UniProtKB/TrEMBL annotation:
<feature type="domain" description="GFO/IDH/MocA-like oxidoreductase">
    <location>
        <begin position="141"/>
        <end position="265"/>
    </location>
</feature>
<dbReference type="Pfam" id="PF22725">
    <property type="entry name" value="GFO_IDH_MocA_C3"/>
</dbReference>
<feature type="domain" description="Gfo/Idh/MocA-like oxidoreductase N-terminal">
    <location>
        <begin position="10"/>
        <end position="131"/>
    </location>
</feature>
<keyword id="KW-0560">Oxidoreductase</keyword>
<dbReference type="GO" id="GO:0000166">
    <property type="term" value="F:nucleotide binding"/>
</dbReference>
<dbReference type="InterPro" id="IPR036291">
    <property type="entry name" value="NAD(P)-bd_dom_sf"/>
</dbReference>
<dbReference type="GO" id="GO:0006740">
    <property type="term" value="P:NADPH regeneration"/>
</dbReference>
<protein>
    <submittedName>
        <fullName>NAD binding Rossmann fold oxidoreductase</fullName>
    </submittedName>
</protein>
<dbReference type="GO" id="GO:0016491">
    <property type="term" value="F:oxidoreductase activity"/>
</dbReference>
<dbReference type="GO" id="GO:0005737">
    <property type="term" value="C:cytoplasm"/>
</dbReference>
<dbReference type="InterPro" id="IPR000683">
    <property type="entry name" value="Gfo/Idh/MocA-like_OxRdtase_N"/>
</dbReference>
<dbReference type="InterPro" id="IPR055170">
    <property type="entry name" value="GFO_IDH_MocA-like_dom"/>
</dbReference>
<comment type="similarity">
    <text>Belongs to the Gfo/Idh/MocA family.</text>
</comment>
<dbReference type="Pfam" id="PF01408">
    <property type="entry name" value="GFO_IDH_MocA"/>
</dbReference>
């Protein structure tokens, strides 16, 4: 049965007006009928200038102060779309102001801080606090999950997944990396989350990672790389293989393969922006999406719709905040493996064993 239509609209604000924050604001305005965008916020003057111009003919209030924004009368929910280093503090502040929250992944770069925020969310069950793992809302990944659940490939045991971005020549990525942490828990965390979701009841046992810098030497000072490979051994005989990159020449290339005892599922192995192919003397070619947004725009809209419905209809959020704890722990362990050159191991509960 389809869910009943919400009887009211949700008064929601977006904090963070970088590339993604702008897009989330527009999604709420144009693609989510039961969302009422009432405010946006940034502490960046360039972003504020854009917002004041873009929203000048609307009733949407532009704030330069997050603390002032969450005091806005009538505000019910906040979409936290800032750099990762302030996800936890802003989510905490929203919960303490009795506001519902959709927080982009991961909730923190620090495992204990992430656990503390999740504990606070559980202490306030009347609030809907959701983790923004957008690929769980993508139609293709949802179809793959349904087919795995139905037994179409037998017992799944191997996930090979990659998140690889178009090479950035503007300097944006290096500035972004300084705030959003290492490549494995900023970038591969989507692939790890998909693995936990698609394989079901598994926990990590050990992980290993290597990486290299091919285009962004500035990352050396940040103890990071622009290309990396990670392997995770999970329980129940399952494996995860992850390739992450910031330097693809052809475009944004996200794909996943799930191998089972009776078959294999492949999602977006040949990325394309449309269904046009050019045949010429140079061969046959097609275009690839330049950014994450073009691939997952519909997923973000579905995510926003389902978050608003969870508040307005008082339903459980589709992705609880604490779901991201295990993927964050694995991502941090992969980063440790990258930097140390050592295999990182986990205990029976799936927690990293620190040397």
């Amino acid at each position: 049965m389809p869910s009943k239509a919400p009887s009211t609209k949700l008064n929601i604000a977006v904090v963070g007006l970088g590339r993604m924050g702008k897009r989330h604001a527009k999604t709420l305005m144009y693609r989510v009928p039961h969302a009422n965008l009432v405010a946006v916020c940034s502490n960046d003057e360039t972003e504020l200038k854009w917002a004041r111009e873009f929203f000048k003919d609307s009733n949407i209030e532009v704030f330069a102060s997050f603390d002032q924004m969450i005091e806005k009368e009538g505000l019910q929910a906040v979409w936290v779309s800032t750099s990762t280093n302030v996800h936890a503090s802003m989510t905490t502040a929203c919960i303490n102001k009795n506001l519902h929250v959709l927080c982009e992944k991961p909730v923190s770069q620090n495992l204990q801080e992430a656990r503390d925020v999740c504990a606070l969310a559980k202490q306030n069950p009347h609030l809907k606090v959701m983790a923004g793992y957008s690929r769980r809302f993508d139609a293709s990944y949802r179809s793959a999950k349904a087919q795995i659940t139905s037994g179409s490939i037998g017992k799944p045991f191997l996930v090979r997944s990659q998140t690889t971005d178009l090479l950035d020549t503007t300097g944006f990525f290096v500035r972004y990396a300084a705030k959003n942490g290492g490549i494995f828990y900023d970038c591969a965390i989507h692939d790890i989350d998909l693995t936990l979701w698609l394989l079901g009841d598994v926990k990590p046992k050990a992980c290993w990672a290597v990486g290299t810098i091919t285009h962004h030497p500035e990352l050396k000072e940040l103890n990071d790389v622009d290309n990396g490979v990670g392997v995770v051994e999970y329980t129940n005989g399952c494996l995860g293989y992850y390739y992450v990159s910031r330097t693809q020449a052809h475009g944004h290339d996200v794909c996943t393969e799930v191998t089972g005892s009776a078959g294999k599922l492949s999602i977006n192995v040949q990325p394309r922006s449309d269904f046009v192919e050019l045949a010429s003397s140079n061969g046959i070619s097609h275009q690839v999406q330049p950014e994450y947004w073009e691939r997952f725009e519909d997923a973000f809209a579905t995510e926003a719709i389902e978050f608003c419905e969870s508040v307005l209809e008082d339903k459980d959020v589709p992705v609880a905040l604490d779901i991201g704890i295990q993927s964050l722990e694995i991502g941090l362990a992969l980063q440790d493996a990258l930097l140390s050159g050592q295999v990182q191991k986990f205990d029976e509960e799936g927690h990293q064993i620190k040397a």
